[in-house]
């Protein structure tokens, strides 16, 4: 699957959150890095078809995600930074079945497919669990299972590891390695990018570096440390 960004620009609150983003992403694992407010979440939302760019286009497999909501639902899954913003149902099974029903499956089919997904992750016993009773890490995993159940070709993740303890993070990273879909992941932590093929570095809504991790990350880390050591708040992105 290829995510094709052509001169993508987005204006929010009268300011350019993204400008002139052009990249053709065909690699299985793509990361988006950058400071707070650099436009990462906005770009993730554009890729997922949740925001229509003000200039340019975002296409997946040749289809404009913002114009074709059905294709977006079929092709792209997004996992938000905070699972509490994503989970809407009282039980785990309902939560996983919901997206499948939205894709047109009948209730029984949707539930069967939801059970199969829970089983795949060794979580069949979660079926009747109350979603509000899950821990933060368990909620992250639930969101991942709910999105994967829809069999997206591209999974967009906005800092999926924030707030997780080390064992839970390592477990989720292992689950991610099993995903056959293309992954586009936002992170602040270069340590989360083992096995990634490409890194996009955003600053002030612009793409300032784009390439394999060993080429982009050393400069990124050096710049972050440099800014972190400075007390000049003028360097803050917003
Ligand atoms: N709804 C909005 N209205 C106005 N400005 C917005 C809105 N959403 C985001 N912005 C601005 O757009 C810019 C990019 O925000 P975005 O959330 O994409 O950054 P980010 O890189 O994901 O940041 P973080 O690392 O803090 O999550 C910021 O300057 C932000 O203040």
Automatic annotation (TrEMBL):
Residues 3-229 form the ABC transporter domain. It comes from the Bacteria. Keywords: ATP-binding, Nucleotide-binding, Transport. The keyword ATP-binding applies. Coiled coil: none annotated. SUPFAM superfamilies: P-loop containing nucleoside triphosphate hydrolases. GO terms for molecular function: ATP binding. Gene3D superfamilies: P-loop containing nucleotide triphosphate hydrolases. InterPro entries: AAA+_ATPase (IPR003593), ABC_transporter-like_ATP-bd (IPR003439), ABC_transpr_CbiO/EcfA_su (IPR015856), ECF_ABC_transporter_ATP-bd (IPR050095), P-loop_NTPase (IPR027417). CDD domains: ABC_cobalt_CbiO_domain1. Belongs to the ABC transporter superfamily. This is Energy-coupling factor ABC transporter ATP-binding protein.
């Amino acid at each position: 699957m290829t995510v094709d960004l052509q001169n993508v620009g987005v204006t929010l609150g009268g300011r350019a959150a993204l400008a002139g983003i052009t990249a053709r992403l065909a690699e299985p694992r793509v990361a988006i890095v950058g400071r707070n407010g650099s436009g990462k979440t906005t770009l993730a939302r554009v890729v997922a078809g949740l925001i229509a760019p003000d200039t340019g286009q975002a296409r997946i497999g040749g289809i404009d995600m913002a114009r074709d909501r059905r294709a977006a639902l079929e092709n792209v899954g997004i996992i938000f930074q905070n699972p509490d913003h994503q989970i809407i149902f009282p039980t785990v099974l309902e939560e996983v079945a919901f997206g499948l029903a939205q894709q047109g499956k009948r209730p029984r089919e949707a539930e069967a497919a939801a059970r199969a997904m829970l089983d795949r992750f060794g979580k069949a016993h979660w079926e009747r669990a109350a979603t509000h009773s899950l821990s933060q890490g368990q909620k992250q995993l639930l969101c991942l299972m709910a999105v994967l159940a829809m069999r997206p070709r591209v999974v967009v993740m906005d800092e999926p590891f924030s707030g997780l303890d080390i064992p839970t993070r390592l477990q989720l990273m292992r689950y991610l390695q099993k995903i056959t879909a293309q992954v586009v992941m936002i992170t602040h932590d270069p340590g989360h990018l083992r096995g990634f093929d490409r890194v996009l570095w955003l600053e002030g809504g612009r793409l300032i570096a784009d390439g394999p991790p060993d080429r982009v990350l050393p400069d990124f880390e050096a710049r972050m440390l440099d800014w972190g050591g400075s007390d000049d708040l003028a360097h803050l992105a917003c």
